[in-house]
Request: fold
Amino acid sequence: MTRVTDIRDFKREFQNRTFFTIREEVKTCDLREETWPSFDCADLNYDVGQSGYSKDGCFVSDPAKFQQSGYWDYASLPDAEIKQIKATLPLLQKSVLHTTTSFEFHFGSVDGQWRLLFAKLISPCSA
Reply:
């Protein structure tokens, strides 16, 4: 887990790419407001176009699953950053999943404007 204060300075571990190269991977996002599909690593095969999800697409849902996930507790972060994460979690209002890439984007309102507060950009079966 990485704390980013200026997204322009962030480099993704994969090929040292900027955050903005995501637009090359997330070409379309026809949002459907429904419960996110289930995921199984055994069903993942990028070579044949299998995302590992029970259904493919771009889904928007409430952020409860991410808020309760506790990823930050296993990220070797300083206590101050974990406290900041936990203070930010209640601000989340919507979460978006793009199954083709497994990217998750978690949005909330800050000072009356929608902000991307968390992005989960991992390969789901890499652990």
In short: The longest strand covers residues 103-110. The CA atoms of residues 73 and 79 lie 10 Å apart.
